[in-house]
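Input structure tokens:
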């Protein structure tokens, strides 16, 4: 049957830097297919990944391997035969968990296969030793009780079988010794890799502590900047409020200036009206003079009193009404002048307050 895929997923592949043994080097530019393969003829498991025509992972799984999750989406394992450490970056934590579970399952299967192989070798070795001990006892009665022909006929096939079995057991023991040496070499390599991984883990822990300190420093700086931003926003709000107040005051000043102009226009009108007062006074004096002349002539014109009495009464009424109107006008003018004076004092106070 050969090798058959038993599980397939996709991930970004990395290898440890062979120079520094610390940094990760990308082995693929994008996510590639990573598969578990089972070889039924050798009873072995491998992880294989191919990027185009390049094989980037060819790792045979042994019981001594360990898959380690270093983050929520990243895992790694060391391969002593390839003398490297492989890393896989997955798209989700579920994919990483499933790959790790499959790794543990395949690792247990490889361990069972190794244990069965060792039990078979030990069984063959014990069977060979027992056969070696039993062969002389089986041959002795034949040599004593039988003839030479019987001895040859009984001993020959058993000796050939035992010889073949012994040779096969010797080759199995030699293979077992070779495998034991290989396993010792792998164990030593794994120990070295574990030491390197421990050093890398310690350095990663130190880096994590450094990153945590840097993160806390960044958080403190961020909080400080946020406080400064809040203070600046408060100052901006205060400045905006001051601008609004200034705008309101400017509008109020414009309104007061408009009112002042209106008051000045009224004052100008009152002044123009006040210029008419001397003319009215002159007219009043003229009328008074005429009235006196009329009174002086009254004695001479007693005969004309009856006709002119009405004119005199009308003139007096007009004079009285004009005086009363003139008095009212003077009172109004005095009030307007007082109001204008008070308005100017209020406007000067407002300018001082601004």
């Amino acid at each position: 049957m050969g090798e058959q895929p038993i599980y397939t997923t996709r991930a970004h592949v990395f290898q440890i830097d062979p120079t520094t043994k610390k940094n990760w080097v990308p082995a693929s530019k994008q996510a590639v297919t990573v598969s578990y393969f089972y070889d039924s003829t050798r009873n072995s498991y491998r992880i294989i990944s191919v990027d185009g025509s390049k094989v980037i992972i060819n790792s045979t799984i042994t019981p001594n391997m360990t898959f380690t999750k270093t983050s929520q989406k990243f895992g790694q394992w060391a391969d002593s035969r390839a003398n490297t450490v492989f890393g896989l970056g997955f798209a989700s934590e579920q994919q990483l968990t499933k790959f790790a579970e499959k790794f543990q399952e395949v690792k247990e299967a490889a361990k069972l296969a190794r244990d069965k192989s060792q039990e078979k070798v030990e069984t063959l070795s014990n069977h060979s030793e027992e056969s070696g001990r039993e062969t002389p006892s089986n041959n002795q009665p034949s040599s004593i009780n039988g003839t030479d022909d019987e001895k040859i006929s009984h001993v020959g096939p058993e000796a050939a079988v035992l010889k073949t079995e012994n040779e096969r057991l010797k080759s199995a023991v030699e293979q077992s010794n070779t495998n034991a040496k290989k396993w010792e070499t792998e164990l030593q390599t794994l120990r070295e890799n574990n030491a390197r991984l421990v050093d890398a883990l310690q350095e990663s822990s130190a880096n994590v502590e450094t990153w945590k300190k840097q993160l806390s420093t960044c958080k403190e700086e961020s909080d400080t900047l946020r406080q400064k931003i809040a203070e600046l926003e408060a100052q901006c709000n205060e400045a905006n409020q001051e601008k609004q107040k200034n705008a309101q005051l400017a509008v109020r000043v414009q309104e007061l200036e408009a009112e002042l102009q209106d008051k000045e226009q009224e004052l100008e009108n009152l002044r123009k009206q006040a210029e008419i007062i001397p003319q009215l006074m002159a007219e009043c004096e003229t009328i008074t003079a005429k009235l006196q002349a009329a009174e002086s002539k009254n004695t001479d014109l007693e005969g004309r009193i009856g006709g002119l009495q009405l004119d005199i009464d009308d003139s007096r009424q007009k004079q009285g009404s004009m005086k009363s109107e003139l008095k009212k006008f003077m009172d109004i003018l005095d009030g307007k002048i007082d109001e204008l004076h008070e308005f100017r004092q209020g406007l000067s106070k407002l300018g001082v307050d601004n």
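The mean pLDDT is 80. The first helix runs from residue 93 to 145.
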